Amino acid sequence: MQFKGKWIIITVLTLTWGSSFILIKKSLESFTPLQIGSIRVSICGLIFMGIGIPAIKKMDRKTLGYAILTGSIGNFIPMFLFPIAQTRVSSSMAGILDSLVPIFVLILGTLFFKIRGTLLQWAGAFIGFIGAAMLVYFSSGYFGESDPLFSLLIVLATICYAGSASLVSHRLAHVSSFELSASVFTLWLIPSLIVFLFSGFISDFHGTTDQWKGLGYLSVLSLCGSAMAVVLYFRLIQTTSAVFASMVTYLMPVVAVFWGLLSGEHFSFWYIVAGVLILLGIYLVQIKSSQKKKALPSRR
User: Fold this and answer.
1) What is the pLDDT of residues 95-150, one digit of tens each?
2) Domain spans of the chain?
3) For the residues of the chain, what is the DSSP string, one character each?
């Protein structure tokens, strides 16, 4: 890929994924977390099923089992955890906490896949957690705008993403990343449609101006923040490197904070300190492992 092309893609990914948290916040003004999560997964499943169904048919039973598990923790569950959490957590805080994924990749790799981290990487994990704890403390105690328990749902979502990444790297490396992404969305299409039918969307939707506006936010979130971004992310990984693509992790919180400030969310000096500690921790964690990292089946 040409120099300008890769920077265009990383800019689009940063803006897209960094904006997903404010889009969730705007969508919550019209819809419930269950409606938001089920619509997102359903749209992505419908988009990718043409590629996902043939990919699923080629999988053996063991691979299919890992693909189902990867889809559940890497796609289905986080799609609901984020909107539930953001009913009580600011979008900027959600964006910063979402950066914890690489730290949990290190921890889960050590616990379940016999990956040994260096002393420097573990120091990075510790620094990152200090930053996360500071962020949760000051957002709930200083301004009282976020609930610590709901903040933990964001952390749980990052653990899910990390678990998915670990499965892809150690159990699904033989499946092409694009086919894997398409298959996991397709596998969870039916469950998401079932949740959608019981979410009350059909009875609650009356075609009001606010609801149509919310549906617009949700459509952009699904089409751009999930489907399109996945394709671009894999294109970036395949044509550059995981090291270069990981820049999204550092740039995305900046965009999330920017949108949060525009929407009137509180922000303090301590948020900056906490965010810097988290990003420093991520940098230390990725120093050795980033070269070997495989693309995630999807994020957000």
Assistant:
1) 889 888 888 888 888 888 887 888 888 998 899 899 888 888 777 655 456 688 89
2) 3-292
3) --HHHHHHHHHHHHHHHHHHHHHHHHHTTTS-HHHHHHHHHHHHHHHHHHHHHHHHHH--HHHHHHHHHHHIIIIIHHHHHHHHHTTTS-HHHHHHHGGGHHHHHHHHHHHHS-PPPPHHHHHHHHHHHHHHHHHHHIIIIIS--S-HHHHHHHHHHHHHHHHHHHHHHHHSTTS-HHHHHHHHHHHTHHHHHHHHHTTTHHHH----HHHHHHHHHHHHHHIIIIIIHHHHHHHHHHHS-HHHHTHHHHHHHHHHHHHHHHTT----HHHHHHHHHHHHHHHHHHHHHGGGPPPPS---
Mean pLDDT within 240-260: 76
User: Does the model's pTM come out above 0.70?
Assistant: yes
State the pLDDT confidence band at 29, using cuts at 50, 70 and 90: very high
Shortest CA distance to 5 belongs to which of 256, 244, 203, 260?
A: 244
Report, as an integer, the average pLDDT of 238-255: 71
